[in-house]
C-alpha cells in the first residue's frame, strides 16, 4: 500500500524546492570523471588504488559544480578515482532501483527520502562509518526525520530548506512596527488592519493560493493540533472544529484588510516578487521558503529586506514549519570500499573547499561548516542562514509523503477560494474539505 504510493508520488511537493533545479534534465547520459574520497580535503590516508562510482541527478549547473568537487577531491586523494554517473531526474529512480536489485549499484549515490521504504535494505548504515563520516555538523532533526529508517542512518542530508517571513524593513519603519516584532497569527490581523486603515494602498501581507494553503492554513492548524497534516494511517490530522477554526482565521485575515485581496495577488502565483505592490513597497511581508531571498531582494533593491520568525500561536504545540532535508548521499551496502566512500561523502558535506565549489547546487548546505563557509565568503546571504536557523530551533513534525499529495492540496485550495470570495462559510468549507479529503485518502490507502 505505502510502497506503491511512494512510487506514485515520485517527487513530493515539499521536496520539490530542493529538486527543482534537478528536474530540468541536464545533458544527461552517464559521464565518467576521475575523483577522490577524502574526509576534509586533506591527503588520502592510503596508497591503495580505489575506484568509486558516484551517481547523482541534476541539471548542467549541478553537474558542473559536482564534477569540479570530484576533481578537487581526487587531487587531494590521488589514490582514489571517482567515476561520475550523472543524468537528469527523469529515470534516475528506475535506473537506481534496477542497479540495486541487480547488484551493480554505484558505491555512492544521491538519494531522496521518498524512496526509503523501497530501497533502505540496500543501503549501508552510516553509523558504522561514523569515525570517517562526521554527521555531528548536521541538525539532529534532519538526520532523524529524513536520513534514518528503523534506527538505521541511511542518508547524509546534503541540503535543507524551510519557510520564513520576509520583511520589508523600510515598510515596517514607515508604519512604526519594530523590526524585532514577534509575529503571531492574530498580530498579523491586528497590525495589518491598522496599516490598511491608515493607507488603503498598503497591505501587511500578500500570498498566492499555494502559500495560503501550505504556509498559512496548514501551520495555523498544525500548531494547535500538534500533529502532521495527514496521519500515517491515511486519516486527516485535524477534525472539523480545528479545520473550521483555521478557515475562519483565513476569512478574517482577508476581511480585515491585512492581506492583499486575493483577486489582485492571484496573478502572481509562484512569482510574488513580480507583484507591483511588492516592487513599490506597498506590501510589508511575504511568507515563503528561505532560498527565495534573492529574488525578493532583487525586486526591491533600494529597500532593506530582512527575515523574522515564522508566525506562531501562543502555546503552539509545534511550529508547523518543517525543515526539509530530503535529499542527500547514501552508500551501497555491498560496496567494497565503505570507509573510502564515507570519506568522500564527508568531503562533500563538510569540506570548506567543497562548499565553495558546490555552493547551493543541492540546496542550502545542511552542514553548519559548509553553510558558515559560504556565508563568510559572501556566497550565502546571512539572512538565509538566519531564517533557516530559526526554523531549525523550533519543534516540528516532519511531513510524511502522503501530506504532499497534489490532489489533496487541490481539494483544500478549491474550498479556500470559495471561502475567500464569500461563496461558502467557514463551516461549509470545512464540511466540503473533510468530505473530499477523506474520500481521496481512502482512495490512496486502497492502492
Automatic annotation (TrEMBL):
UniProt cross-references to InterPro entries, sorted A to Z: Bact_solute-bd_prot1, SBP
Domain of life of the native organism: Bacteria
Record-annotated membrane-spanning stretches: none
Keyword annotations of the record: Signal
Signal sequence extent: 1-22
Protein name: Extracellular solute-binding protein
